[in-house]
Each structure stands twice: as C-alpha cells, then as structure tokens.
Amino acid sequence: MYAPLKLYCQALVNLTEAELSLIDTYFETKTVKKKEYLLQDGKVCNFIGFIAEGAIRHFHVKNGEEKTCDISFENSWVTDFQSFTHNTPGIMNLQTMETTTLNIIKKENLYKLYAQCAVYETFGRLMAEQVAQRATEIAMSLSSDKPEERFQNLLKNQPSILQRVPQKYIANFLGIGAESLSRIRSRIISKEKNNKLV
Predict the structure, then answer these.
(1) 148 close to 181: Cβ distance less than 8 angstroms
(2) Could you tell me if 16 and 35 lie in one domain?
(3) Count of domains in the chain?
(4) Which residue range(s) make up the domain with 59?
(5) Both 134 and 177 in a single domain?
(6) CATH number at residue 138
(7) CA 31, 85, 77, 182 torsion: positive or negative?
C-alpha cells in the first residue's frame, strides 16, 4: 500500500518511475491496531513513518499526566526526531486512535536510499521542514490563540476529528478540560444555528 506515499513524494519532488520504485525497496508497510503503540517513551526511535490510513496521537508524560502534543492523520509523518537523530531514548509516545496503516522506513534504510538516489536527500530535507513547520504552528497557536480558536482551526483542518478521536484527547491537545471543550462545542453549534436563522 504505497500509492498515497508515492503521490505525496511526487508532489514534493519530481521523481522518475525508477526513483519512485525505490520506495518499494526501502519502505515497509505496517498495520497497527487501535490503541496500540508505534513508539513508547524510553525507547530509541529508529524509524520515520508515513500514515497511509489512520490516526496517531503524540504524547509525553509529565508528573504522571499525559500531555497530547499532536494528533496526526493521513499523509502525515510520525517519528521522534530528537531520538531518531541522536540515537537516544525518546520521551515521545505514538499511539494509534484507530487501526492505522503506515509506510515505515528504518534509519539505516533511509541512509541507503539517500546514498542510492540523491533526490531523496532533497525529499528528506523538505519532509523535515514540514514536520518542523507543524511543530512551530502548534507552539504559536498554544501561545497566542484562545482554546475556541484552536478548536475551530482543528475542525477546519480535520473535520472528522470528533468522529475519529475521543474528546478527552482533543481537550488534552487544546490544553483544556473535557467539560470546557463541551462548552466550546455548544457555543459553536449555537452560533452556527443563529447564523443560519439570520
């Protein structure tokens, strides 16, 4: 199941058929059942994964509490870059929110791919830039947007999130309690109804 990954790669960098076929050689497909872990804290992350289908929650544990850092869906990359880059035990947990199919490349295979085809080095840099940009957007939103604005942006970018991810994890990602999220949802629904009546 490499079709979504190949489309993504082709959109990012212009690849020939021969270059695209290297994905079949160096990537592997993995299906992870709902609520299972792709990565747990304390382990060294030696892979980068592309979500072909499914949803993954990124979280770490601080003072015994889970802190959701991100929720990724189709056509997103997942890894613990710090652990991956420095070969050190990570603090990130990657847990599936539904049965998820990924295309995974191990670290040693990524370097082999770079050595065999230089254009993939450009692809790797662009991919890393996209992941970094996503992290920056989340940090900026946390520091400047109100929870309601963050929730509306979340719904805009991922309309099906409420059907796919338990509300408690969405609230945790927004930095609010589940009750606060319920109130925000009610306000948004009420506003939408009023707008339709006008």
Answers:
(1) no
(2) yes
(3) 2
(4) 3-143
(5) no
(6) 2.60.120.10
(7) positive
18-31 tens-digit pLDDT: 999 999 999 999 99
Contact of 83 with 127, CB cutoff 8 Å: no
What strands lie across the sheet with 28-32, from one edge to the other?
Answer: 28-32, 100-106, 47-53, 77-78
For 46-62, how does the pLDDT look when each residue is reduced to its tens digit (9 = 90+)?
999 999 999 999 999 99
Same domain, 110 and 160: no
Q: For residue 88, how many other CB atoms are within 10 A of its CB?
A: 12
Contact 54, 101 (CB under 8 A): yes
The average confidence (pLDDT) of the chain is 91
Exposed, middle or buried, 38 (CB in 10 Å: 0-12/13-18/19+)?
Answer: buried
When pLDDT is cut at 50, 70 and 90, the band that residue 14 belongs to is confident
CA 63-68-73 angle, to 5 degrees, is: 160
- Distance of alpha carbon 125 from its chain centroid, rounded? 17
